[in-house]
Write a structure and sequence with these properties.
By secondary structure, the chain is an alpha/beta fold. The protein is built from eleven helices and nine strands. The chain has two domains: 169 residues, Rossmann fold (3-Layer(aba) Sandwich); 95 residues, Pantoate--beta-alanine Ligase, Chain: A,domain 2, CATH 3.30.1300.10. The structure holds adenosine monophosphate.
Length: 285
């Protein structure tokens, strides 16, 4: 890492120049900024396993289905660069929109049915936006390993799929979810929660733990596992459920009847106007 913090590349050309003389292996972490301990855990993992660490900071307009959500997304490049410097990042790619999507850009990446369920059903176009930007960024950075959080479970499934289908360079590495002391998954969205809603938001983790315990205790019926989650969520009046899901971890098709695992359990819940997601992988029985 340079003594005076990361090199900041604002254009594709600057990124190419910054990477020209760097060592391998190269680790890559894609972010939308507003960096917190969850992002830092990915950067640290990349640092530990790479000669060169590259982070991107780009609020990708194409993965937002609501203009107000995009407008409300926190942006503070200065403090993000401080976080990157402290985590030992070598190169930060912080492009303007037209560097990622050149004028007239019309090509998109559609990951297929796995992008149209769950988050994709609630946020139409979201995963085409994610898949397109991840493809472009991995192509530009040409990493040996790209690190993604398990917190965004469906996103990780989508990224693994496009990496395989499109032969994107390097490996995709999933990293464990970093949580607040009460179990709430760290997210830049948490800052938008009013105090009473912030407290209520811990119910997401409680619902997932109830399912994990039930599954470990021998409950394999997918419907019962969904009901277990809904019962916990129903006890928190501030929580408004968007979906609860017990699905195949690769196809994301909802499980029916008795299934030993592995399963991906996920949920999306609105608390105080803020949409929160979380998930838990259940091992093979
Ligand atoms: P974002 O900036 O929200 O696009 O997230 C960038 C990366 O950080 C994604 O791979 C996320 O899954 C990951 N990430 C976000 N929050 C967490 C967390 N609490 N724990 C682990 N990884 C996370």
């Amino acid at each position: 890492m340079p003594e005076d913090g990361p090199v900041v590349a604002r254009t594709r050309e600057e990124l190419r120049a910054a990477l020209a003389s760097t060592g391998r292996p190269r680790g890559f972490v894609a972010t939308m900024g507003a960096l917190h301990e969850g992002h830092v855990s990915l950067l640290r993992r990349a640092r530990a396993e790479s000669a060169t660490v590259v982070a991107s900071i780009f609020v990708n307009p194409r993965q937002f289905d609501r203009a107000d959500d995009l407008a409300a997304y926190p942006r503070d490049l200065g403090s993000d660069l401080d976080v990157c410097a402290a985590a030992g990042v070598d190169v930060v790619f912080a492009p303007a929109g037209e560097e990622v999507y050149p004028p007239g850009s019309a090509t998109t990446v559609d990951p297929g049915p796995i992008g149209r369920v769950l988050e994709g059903a609630s946020r139409p176009g979201h995963f085409v936006g994610v898949a397109t930007v991840v493809t472009i960024l991995i192509d530009l950075v040409a990493p040996d390993r790209s690190y993604f959080g398990e917190k965004d479970g469906q996103q990780l499934v989508v990224v693994r799929r496009i990496a395989r289908d499109l032969a994107l360079p390097g490996a995709i590495v999933g990293c464990p979810t970093v949580r607040e002391p009460d179990g709430l998954a760290m997210s830049s969205r948490n800052e938008r929660l009013a105090p009473a809603d912030r407290e209520a938001a811990a119910v997401l983790r409680r619902a997932l733990l109830a399912v994990r315990d039930a599954h470990a205790g021998g409950v394999t019926d997918a419907g019962r596992l969904r009901t277990t989650m809904l019962e916990v969520l129903a006890r928190e009046p501030r929580a408004h459920v968007d979906y609860v899901s017990v699905a195949d971890p690769e196809t994301l098709v909802e499980a029916e009847g008795s299934r030993a695992g592995p399963l991906l359990v996920s949920l999306a819940v609105e608390v105080g106007g803020v949409r929160l997601i979380d998930c838990e992988a259940l091992p093979a029985g």
